[in-house]
Design brief:
- By secondary structure, the protein is an alpha/beta fold.
- It has helices at 11-29, 46-60, 72-85, 101-108, 121-136, 174-188; strands at residues 2-5, 36-38, 66-69, 93-97, 115-118, 151-154.
- The chain is built from six helices and six strands, in the order βαβαβαβαβαβα.
- A six-stranded mixed β-sheet has the order 2-1-3-4-5-6, sandwiched between helices.
- The chain is elongated, with a radius of gyration of 19 Å.
- It starts with a strand and ends with a helix.
- The relative contact order is 0.12.
Length: 191
């Protein structure tokens, strides 16, 4: 069972959550033994409500073993609420979306999070600029992917960026992708 907290007020978090919900529905349809409980958390009160909502959902679904929110810090708040309410299971699986430095550090140390997904910002910005330029020129945006996709981070994935001891580094894909992104879009633009 999974407790999921969507944040419907923002397009990006709403899209993330709908994708996750679609995956769960497809897994259930394929006979996976998954149940999930949803409770939207309004953007205006999300910091105050997330821990409380997680505890309430856990009380209503006592056999749960997973938490997924639409941002790493929301998942961490949900875990905090579960801990404070005494509803934190030993085998809890925590899924985050952002790949921020704090979460990567927690995953690397085997604490709180099991997985997070990070969508590199540098390629996303270049792709958005390319799309806008094409739209303004009366063209259709490119439909094919340019090879820059989200990265999945787990403790065993071994794909962590150099984090150092303080985990102050925020990975945005720049170090790994910048040269490739620039050269790819220059090729596309004929430059």
């Amino acid at each position: 069972s999974v407790i999921a907290e969507p944040l419907p007020d923002l397009l990006v978090t709403d899209a993330r959550f709908k994708g996750f919900q679609r995956f769960l529905d497809e897994a259930i349809a394929a006979c996976a033994d998954i149940k999930y409980a949803l409770r939207p958390v309004p953007g205006a009160t999300m910091a105050e409500d997330t821990a409380r909502v997680a505890a309430t959902l856990a009380q209503q679904n006592p056999r749960f073993n997973g938490v997924m929110s639409t941002a790493d810090w929301l998942s961490e708040l949900a875990v905090s609420g579960l801990r404070e309410s005494g509803m934190l299971p030993r085998d809890l699986i925590v899924v985050g979306i952002d790949g921020d430095s704090r979460t990567l550090g927690l995953i690397a140390k085997g604490k709180t999070f099991n997985v997070t997904v990070q969508d590199p910002m540098v390629p996303s910005v270049w792709g958005s600029v390319d799309d806008l330029n094409r739209i303004f020129a009366g063209e259709e945006p490119l439909q094919e992917k340019q090879g820059f996709g989200p990265l999945l981070f787990t403790r065993s994935s071994g794909n962590f960026p150099p984090l150092g001891d303080s985990f102050t580094y925020f990975w945005d894909g720049e170090n790994e992708y910048e040269d490739l992104v620039v050269s790819t879009y220059r090729r596309i633009w004929g430059k």
